[in-house]
Every structure is written in C-alpha cells, then in structure tokens.
Write a structure and sequence with these properties.
Elements (H helix, E strand, L loop, with lengths): L15 E2 L2 H5 L4 E4 L18 H9 L8 E4 L6 E3 L4 E5 L2 E4 L6 E5 L3 E7 L4 E7 L1 H5 L2 H11 L8 E4 L9 E3 H10 L8 E5 L2 E4 L1 H11 L7 E3 L23 E5 L17
Parallel strand pairs: 3-5, 4-6, 10-14
Antiparallel strand pairs: 1-2, 2-15, 6-9, 7-15, 8-9, 8-10, 11-13, 12-13
Length: 266
C-alpha cells in the first residue's frame, strides 16, 4: 500500500507524510519516515533534532521553536507543555501555545494527533498496547475537553504504526485489554493459534476516539503499517534499535474554519 495522494512530500522516497484531514484543518504537522534526517533518541539535555531536522520541520511550519517532548512510559498521563525541551513524564502532551511544536516518538506504537480547531488546542498521544489498554487516545480528547473544547468539533489522525496484519499478541496483553474494555476488546482481535491473537490497534484507537466524542468522519488514519513497510519506516518488531519515527505538530498562529469530514479516511 502506498501513501494516499497528497499525504507525502515531493521527494522519493518521502521524508515525511501528513494527514489530509489535519491539513484541511490548518494544523502544521508531519509524520516522519525512516528517510527523515537528524532524529536521535529523546534524551535530556539536548534536542533530539539536529539542524537538518529542524530545517525540514521549519518547511512544514513546525520548526520555529524548540520541540516539546516527553519521557514516554507506555501509559496515559497527560503533560501540558508551555516550552520546548523535555517537559515531563507521560504519553500525552498538550498545548495551546501557538507555534510550540509537540512531538511523540514511535517505532510501531500509534502516534495519535487530536486538534481542537475552534479553540486552538492540540494533543499528541503515544499508544502501544499498554497505552491502548489505558485509552491514551481518550485521555488526549478528555484533556482538550477539560480545557473548554467540544469533542464533536475536534479532528484526529493516526499516523504510521503497526497494523492488524503484523501485530500478534499473547494472553497477558489480552487480559489487560479485557480488564479495560470488557465489551469492546473482542472486536479488536482475531485468534490465530492457541494463546495468540492478532491485535488491531488501529480499530481500537479509532473506537476510543469515537467513544470520547469525535465524529467518525473527523478521524483520519493513514493505514500504513510500520512492520510491513521496511522501505518507509522503522519497526521495533522487525528490527529492534534501528531508529525512531516522530509525529510533530504545532498549534497555528491563525486558526482555520473547522473542516468537513474526510470522505474515505477510514
């Protein structure tokens, strides 16, 4: 599967991708590929982005200030950022500060972007199976709602991440999903052999965004599997320690009108 038209830069292979729905909402953002230069492990002190990376982020409107990022711990805690650099420990970072880039690092886990285009507030979530079991995506929506937003006006997007084609899990994962979502988890898995299931994190997080109040047509999913697409992405399952992917977005200085639903995004 190739990126949808309009969802990549003009270089082949592409250095970054974007969500058409977030573009139409006026949100500067990108999802990096393995060809994006200058990204290191997110540690403090020091930025995980070098000069080449910041130049490309600048091209997309998300490189004018130091990037805010988290020490990610596979949970659902929310950290509000008012400056760049390492801003705390958690898996959901939010801000209403125009021009402040927020970043989530992944290498199979889902980067989830939620934007309130009416009030100019943004949340990025890191959702692997642990974050999904704790509804990190729902926590991102709830954080924007507590700040005064109406979820029905939000837009959300799921970036490149491991797909249901490639993500096999075992009993302990199922137990956590069952504890958190006793009525929903069976729709997220397919049994493959004794004690093993294929887990659809895409569907799980789409449903969590909907449950939190987003309209189905206001959720975009690039549906690009990091494990399948070795030409485009790093994958923890396929090659541990290879590298990091990053989702970066920033509240725009000037808000656009909220977009209409994106046909065919699901």
């Amino acid at each position: 599967m190739s990126p949808r038209a309009g969802a990549r830069d003009d270089r082949d292979p592409p250095r970054y991708l974007h969500s058409p729905l977030l573009e139409r909402a006026g949100l500067p953002h990108l999802f990096t590929t393995r060809h994006f230069p200058g990204v290191a492990a997110p540690r403090d002190p020091g930025s995980p982005f070098d000069g080449d990376a910041m130049a490309l982020l600048g091209e997309r409107g998300v490189g004018a200030a130091p990037v805010a990022y988290l020490r990610q711990v596979h949970g659902a805690d929310v950290v509000d950022a008012q400056r760049g650099g390492l801003v705390g420990r958690g898996d959901v970072v939010t801000s209403s500060r125009p021009g402040l880039p927020l970043a989530i690092f992944t290498a199979d886990c889902l980067p989830v972007v939620v934007f309130d285009p009416v009030n100019g507030r943004l949340a990025l979530a890191h959702a692997g199976w642990r974050g999904t079991a704790q509804s990190a995506a729902g926590a991102a929506v709830a954080a924007l709602a507590r700040a005064g937003g109406a979820p029905a006006t939000f837009v959300g997007a799921i970036g490149p991440s491991i797909g249901p084609c490639c993500y096999e899990v075992d009993g302990p994962v199922i137990e956590r999903l069952e504890a958190g979502f006793p009525d929903r988890w069976p729709g997220w898995v397919t049994a493959t052999r004794p004690g093993k299931w294929m887990l659809d994190l895409w569907r799980a997080n789409e449903e969590q965004l909907e449950t939190a109040g987003l309209d189905r047509g206001r959720i975009d999913n690039l549906r690009l599997c990091t494990a399948c697409r070795a030409d485009l992405f790093f994958s923890y399952r396929r090659g541990r320690g290879q590298g990091r992917l990053v989702a970066v977005a920033a509240v725009p200085a000037r808000l656009s009108a909220p977009p209409s639903p994106l046909a065919g995004s699901r």
